[in-house]
Amino acid sequence: MSGFFSKDDVIGLHKGVVGGKPIGCASCGLYRQCLSPKMAPHGQGQLGILNWAEAPGEDEDKRGKQLVGKIGTYYRGCLGEHGIDLDRDTVKINSVNCRPPDNRAPKSHEIQACRSRCYSVLHEVKPKAVFLLGGAAIESYFGHRTNIGGGITLWRGWQIPDRENHCWVFPLFHPSYVLRNEKVNPAVETVFLNDLEYAIKHYQDPFPTWKPEEDCIEILTNTDDVLNRLDRVARQFHNPIAFDYETTGLRPIAREQHIVACSIATGFDHAFAFQFNDINIERLLKKILVDSSIKKIAQNMKFEDMWSRAVLNCPVNGWYWDTMYGEHTLDNRRGTKNLEFQAAKTLGFFNFKGATDEYLKSNEKNANALNRIYDAPMRDILKRCALDSLTEYRIASLQWKQFEGLK
Question: Is 2 contained in some domain?
């Protein structure tokens, strides 16, 4: 999924615009060379499931319907094992609605051109769940919302709450991929069938009603407000907290390295962020960090631990949970542990980094190098910091429930 769009095109892609120019059927052109151009969706959708596949193959193009022929027969049988009829109970669309030549995989610009048609179907059908079949479907559905990448091998198997469209999303291998690998790697079919069974078992789960993240954070710019809030945490708080730093670099080795901002999440629906620019703020924060009765949560805790020791000369006592290692235990696939992906697949929360990411990276290939954090608007940095700790707290809370379920 990497390279789907430039940073400047993120908003434009959702509106069907790239580089200031409208995109659509004319820019794609596949409709000129297929038998069933601009294929309409099919299916009654009685159970509220939307199958979002890749592109029409030869059989689909000839018959003007998605998921027919050998591939459709196989998928129909898989659903039938669970009492679901492909035509009666689901709706079918493709990420690209015209057949690419020689059944080749759809290209990114073709997927982008067709995205608005697919989303029009989504908004009309209002499904309970979307089954994303294959990598092109992942790109079509999420490509305008995130740069995460990873393809179907990263995304498959999750139950993703799409809060923007109020539906569950279940990424699955495409049935054609399963059939191509049935002799070479039979395990692919096992994974596909397990993922499909999981999706069918959970697609009617109650949809979460979490408060929007931006309504849960406070940006504190008054020193007295920061001190009052930290004092309250230090004296009265006995529940776990998540905390996060924004710093001038990756490692606090050089003297020029500083902690610029800090945030603390005190619950599932509340976090506050503040600038690290006052000796009294430092004193109260250190009091919280050394108190082992206040349990601490972080994403990759060694980062906050290292910076606390090096810059504040303060150990962090009471470490309780690391969301990165929690995810490592639950699913050890490459790419699943970073906070951005966890936020997307667990919370349906995309792009919380916003425009700050470029300021937090150094142009030098040196872990001790300084970044450009002081060039960024400080309010944006504080917002990013608050969203980090809030996200960590929310993910930790959901991980605890997952571990409870494994007992």
Answer: no
